[in-house]
Design a protein that fits this description.
Growth Hormone, Chain: A; about 350 residues; globular; 14 helices; 2 domains; mainly alpha
Length: about 350
């Protein structure tokens, strides 16, 4: 194996590990939500707030890390973000109240956004266009596998140890990633190509999105759509574990069915979008999601652990058919989603 191949493998491995941190920090602790609610003596909605604030922090982070990486360079931003991620995970593990956990999860999400934003830019700096797609596919494969395995691992950690250790594991993974970034990743953005960071310019660029009603409608539609999925994620552990009496260590296996359905629908959508106009896919996805959401609500009283993920098949076509419309507005889409996740438990508590 050549030095170039060794270097490529190391870079992809490190970036794959970084890409795992975001889905792991969401899906790995899902089985613990009912335990967190019981341990702190708070309603389910308060435990679900730990997911909402994480998403809110992740959304706000996407507003700043891109311009920061263009100004300071890729390595300082991704290294700093990963170290803060580790520190926030430790703070979550040591939280003594639900309020502390909610606040620390905000900073956890804020730090997680650094890797999400910078990975793409860093790989574009390193690889030529034809090689970029191939290397990025490996990273995307990791981000698909991570949410599949994370709840299973989290469930067993919960049984053997406690929910605190889930965050200790995340902290250790982030520290290992930080060491590898420091030792093996070189700065890829030359000083002469860097752009000054002006917060007013950044805010102005994103504010311009709101002057385009069509773009705004896509962002809102996507935000509400993803809110449905994440509301299911935050409520799912309570439905499975408390209502259907699924053991925490088995929750991940049922949850994996949702990921499989999402993966299948992503593949189907990618095939259809080549033949069908993207706007038509957008409309079809919304209508399918609406119809299936009504069906899911109607069958809620008869749900079993198996029927729950089957009913969420809608989340595949509903969420993945129009993502290209909202790339520029991803942070605002996530903010809409976070607000919805906060409001739903308040309006419809367990």
């Amino acid at each position: 194996m050549t030095t170039r191949q060794h270097s490529s493998f190391a870079i992809v491995f490190i970036l794959g590990l970084l890409a795992m941190l975001m889905p792991l920090s969401i899906d790995m602790y899902l089985p613990a939500l009912p335990v967190i609610s019981a341990q702190f003596g708070v309603p389910a909605g308060s435990a679900q707030m730990t997911l909402s604030t994480y998403i809110l922090g992740f959304a706000l982070g996407q507003l700043i890390y891109g311009p920061m990486a263009d100004s300071l360079g890729r390595k300082p931003v991704i290294l700093g973000g990963t170290l803060v991620f580790a520190a926030a995970a430790v703070a979550c593990a040591l939280a003594q109240t639900i309020d502390q956990l909610i606040v620390m999860r905000f900073f956890h999400g804020l730090a997680a956004a650094a890797a999400s934003v910078v990975i793409n830019a860093l790989m574009r700096d390193i690889y030529p266009k034809e090689e970029f797609s191939r290397m990025m596919s490996f990273v995307m494969l990791v981000t698909t596998i991570a949410p599949l395995m994370a709840p299973i691992v989290g469930g067993w950690v919960l049984v053997w140890l406690s929910w605190h250790y889930i965050f200790w594991i995340l902290a250790i993974a982030a520290i290992l990633a930080s060491v590898m970034i420091f030792a093996l990743i070189k700065e890829t953005l030359p000083v002469e190509r860097r752009q000054p960071f002006h917060i007013r310019t950044t805010i102005g660029n994103f504010a311009a999105l709101f002057r385009h009603k069509r773009v705004l409608s896509y962002m809102l539609a996507s935000g509400f759509s993803f809110a449905g999925m994440f509301s299911f994620l935050s409520a799912g552990p309570f439905v499975y574990i408390e209502i259907n009496h699924v053991p925490p260590q088995d929750f991940g296996y049922y949850f994996a069915l949702n990921i499989v359905f999402l993966f299948v629908m992503t593949i189907i959508n990618s095939r259809f979008v080549r033949r069908v106009e993207a706007l038509n896919m957008f409309r079809a996805g919304l209508w399918i999601q609406f119809a299936m959401a009504v069906a899911m609500a109607a069958s809620a009283a008869f749900m079993t652990p198996v029927s729950s993920p089957v009913n969420t098949l809608v989340l595949g076509p509903g969420n993945y058919s129009f993502s290209d419309f909202v790339k520029l507005g991803v942070p605002f889409t996530l903010i809409v989603m976070a607000v919805c996740i906060v409001m739903i438990p308040m309006l419809f508590p367990f």
